[in-house]
Amino acid sequence: MFQKILIANRGEIALRVIRACREMGIGSVAVHSTADADAMHVRMADESVCIGPPPSPDSYLSVPAIISACEITGAEAIHPGYGFLSENANFVQIVEDHGLTFIGPTAEHIRIMGDKITAKDTVKALGVPCVPGSAGGVADVAEAKQVGAEIGYPVIIKATAGGGGRGMKLAKSEDELENAFRTARSEAKAAFGNDEVYIEKYLGKPRHIEIQVFGDGKGRAVHLGERDCSLQRRHQKVLEEAPGPAITPEMRAEIGRTSAEAVAKIGYSGAGTIEYLFENGEFYFIEMNTRLQVEHPVTEAVYGVDLVREQIRVAAGLPMEFQQDDLVPNGHSIEVRINAEKLPNFSPSPGRISQYHAPGGLGVRMDSALYDGYRIPPYYDSLIGKLIVHGRDRPEALARLRRALGEIIVDGVDTTIPLFRALLEEEDVLTGDYTIHWLEKWLAENLG
Ligand code: ADP
User: Which of 88, 112, 350, 415 would bridge 376 by S-S if both were Cys, CB 3.0 to 4.6 A apart?
Assistant: First the structure.
């Protein structure tokens, strides 16, 4: 087992990894920008290294700075968290070239899944159901029209290098196709430096259902059921839950098995998520994320496992601690993402936290790097906490969520907490009856 792990991240996810290290008796090294010198992850880690000025490209994304921090502190492995360098295949290669261990899949697996066309081709060949669409990239408007005629409208044009909900354009009919195609291309070029796009059938009322998978890198893999992440704003998840209200045990067993078998066949190592759209009882693959997800705690709650501990073990060459038969879901869990943002426009709201009180009690987990007097810097994403509840069933989880949202205090900045209090008054949220478009419509009607 490793003696010391460096966490190449900040905020709540850095704390999450430090906590796992501490429970496993492993030393932890935090890295931070000058803007984060007083951050909680720096205080909580055993050691810390300043790796540069506030802008992420000069610090949290600076590969030489992170490798140097490993060399200075003697850390043997790097946990990337999510975001930043977590899905950067070149970084993984450099880490390995320096004789260090990347806690995650291989550079090759990250590369395959990071290109959405290659990813789709790969999983399709492994028996995973996919959204009907173009066979690979679409070169020009003429080809786009051909694909549109074949699969039928509406269609969605997506960037092959896409991520974070960006670079997607809807065309409801052939009239809208040319404009949507050109816009998608130029947006993809600007956002990802790669203008390749592909086309998929646009599903009108799907749910977003993702399967947590875990591989040992030696051809064995398991699944840990699904998360329903349909409540989204701008294709970004806002609330996640497990199990999915629309998923039966039979569906779970089948899509879970298909997903686990696919990652087993490619010899995948560590945690991964296979994302699907789910409509009329059918699953359609959209992408695979080759890292720990923001919403992993709902799976941990329902399956009673520590996914970060497992990531570390597998990266150290140890066998997985669980087998498929051990993984039996228990109860219901819901996570809400608390962002420092001002409603109704969700504009960033950095600043000083004058008072912070975390909710607690049975079935409540608060993952946050906040503390009284902490100053949220303006340079990074606005996620400041995740409130996760667990109950014996969905009504109990909802009751705990309502109770915890009543206890939490975050003063000094604006947050998305009032949004969740309002959502818990909605019949559709209480019954779990929503698709990926539900929240946008609700926001337009209630906050617009
Ligand atoms: P990203 O990598 O940017 O997150 P995804 O491919 O995972 O992109 O898609 C993000 C979200 O966009 C999905 O959760 C869904 O809301 C929407 N979406 C993607 N593909 C389709 C599709 N074919 N039909 C309808 N909605 C889609």
Answer: 350
